[in-house]
Amino acid sequence: MSTSKIETDLSDCKENFDDLYALLCLSAHKHLQNLELSERIVQEVYLDVVKDEITFKNENIATRYFYNTVEIKCKAYIRNNTIVQLRVISKSELQEIEKHFMTKEDVIIVNPKLIEMALNTLPIDLANKMRISIGDYSSK
């Protein structure tokens, strides 16, 4: 079992950060799909450590801190910058979309037929039990 060195100043933290920089950027890019933004967030994480003079007991804790903080900041960015986009649909587009959906009347007529077809594929005893149990839900 190896013991990690104890970080007593920010220079050790900077060395650890420099080693992790590319991997942290890739991790952020996985969430954001934007390399420039990913780099900016990773740099902000490091600047926060420097500004707050955060020290870590060992490299493993520092590594976990950087990864977790980058992930949290990426998710916060996504949550805060998600924009709901609305678009106006023309009448012809709406009619095209409606072709793929059934009207309420179609569903009321078609459902019992589909259910009966499915029941006919079952063994007779089981089909009869199912008919009794769904009898109250029939539109007949």
Mean pLDDT: 79
Measured on Cα atoms, how large is the radius of gyration? 30 Å
Percent of residues in helices comes to over 70%
Order of helices and strands: HHHHHH
Low-confidence stretches: 1-8
Structural class: mainly alpha
Number of strands: 0
- Based on Cα principal axes, name the global outline: elongated
Helix segment count? 6
Give the biggest sheet: none
**Beta fraction of the residues?**
under 5%
Q: What separation lies between the terminal Cα atoms?
A: 74 Å
How would you summarize the topology of this molecule?
Elements (H helix, E strand, L loop, with lengths): L9 H23 L2 H18 L6 H23 L9 H8 L5 H17 L3 H11 L6
How would you sum up this structure, described in words?
By secondary structure, this protein is mostly helical. Helices cover 71% and strands 0% of the residues. It has six helices and no strands. Helix 1 packs antiparallel against helix 2, helix 1 runs parallel beside helix 3 (59-81) and helix 2 crosses helix 3 (59-81). The longest helix is centred in the N-terminal third of the chain and has 23 residues, at 10-32. The radius of gyration is 30 Å and the shape is elongated. It starts with 9 loop residues before the first helix and ends in a 6-residue tail after the last helix. The relative contact order is 0.10. Residues 1-8 have low confidence and may be disordered.
Brief write-up:
It is built from 6 helices and no strands. By secondary structure, the chain is mainly alpha-helical.
